[in-house]
């Protein structure tokens, strides 16, 4: 009997235990690089199942290693951190820490990977090594990059790496992936505009940076509409404008802030270059000085084709071809798993989290992970590992590379 068939037989017990773990984690959220209790919880479970445990990468990161004979290695990653949001839910497992909340489903991601780790340790049929990566600080703090900088893949080498994120609004039992870009880069920018302050009733005596900022805001919007190829995608959003503190004074300075998103490295370069040109050009035309500070954060999340197709095939064997989206629309949100995909082949998937009614929206104070998705995710990870670490898996990837 195959491992996943045994998993299906124990599904009611698995669902209950996965939900217990997930709700415990939801009730005790920890922010980036503070996931000490979460890491203890994960490490204790892995140790109980006889999985080799390594701690300390990125401070609170945990890596569990499971070996079955000689063969290739695969890495599977879940994120553990919560968000600085005050939860408004009133159910029993709501956050017990005011101002901190699992509003993005990382509690579910961790529980699903733990469920797969337990099952593979107890019943797994594969030949090779699987590294279970429990990563801190995905939410804007680049925990993936820090783990890598501290030797993640040199200490735990693998041929490919996979991760998954819940997707509210997509039915439970549905999985989605695509080759190529699936999530955007995350860049932030700040523009400092300097003019010459004056009395608001005598604008001719000053140089108005507010007028310049308005023109810069409008000019930035033309970059996507007039510089990008129509079939390409990009976003430039102005999210903050800070200027002055009086109704009758033209201020000396204006600060604009925002974010830029894109999927292709060339598009990212174009956006940064054109933002600098638009900013400096409008500043010169209005007599102001302006400086753009453009900061690149997470790169775009780009799936390698062979691993994306492989993950889709595994998903189809689990839930049926009609419940797999093989070319899902890319999302303009960002994900630090992108750093891992820059280093090795792999794929990032979405798992259906059900209706987004009742506040099931990512980063909402009403959010709660849908426990019905837990056994689907756990079974998917089991099947993925067993399919990758077998003779057919080796032939599949060898053929894709040929």
Write the layout of secondary structure elements.
Layout: H1 3-9, H2 11-27, H3 36-48, E1 52-55, E2 62-68, E3 73-79, H4 106-123, E4 128-135, H5 143-149, H6 152-155, E5 160-167, E6 175-176, E7 180-183, E8 186-194, E9 198-199, H7 209-226, E10 234-243, E11 249-250, E12 253-262, H8 265-286, E13 289-298, E14 301-303, H9 305-319, E15 324-325, H10 337-343, E16 346-352, H11 374-388, H12 391-401
Parallel strand pairs: 3-4, 3-5, 5-16, 6-15
Antiparallel strand pairs: 1-2, 2-4, 6-16, 7-14, 8-12, 8-13, 9-11, 10-12
Low-pLDDT regions? 1-7
The CATH architecture of the largest domain can be named as 3-Layer(aba) Sandwich
- Biggest beta-sheet profile: 8 strands, mixed
- Under CATH, the homologous superfamily of the largest domain reads Zn peptidases
Number of strands: 16
Q: What is the subunit organization of this protein?
A: single chain
Average residue-wise pLDDT: 95
Which radius of gyration do the C-alpha atoms yield? 24 Å
In the CATH scheme, what's the topology name of the largest domain? Aminopeptidase
Q: What separation lies between the terminal Cα atoms?
A: 33 Å
The sequence of SSEs as H and E is: HHHEEEHEHHEEEEEHEEEHEEHEHEHH
Total individual domains: 2
Class by alpha and beta content: alpha/beta
How much of the sequence lies in strands comes to 15-25%
Estimate the global geometry from the Cα principal axes: elongated
Pfam families: M20_dimer, Peptidase_M20
Organism: Novosphingobium mangrovi
Keywords: Hydrolase
InterPro entries: Amidohydrolase, Bact_exopeptidase_dim_dom, Peptidase_M20, Peptidase_M20_dimer
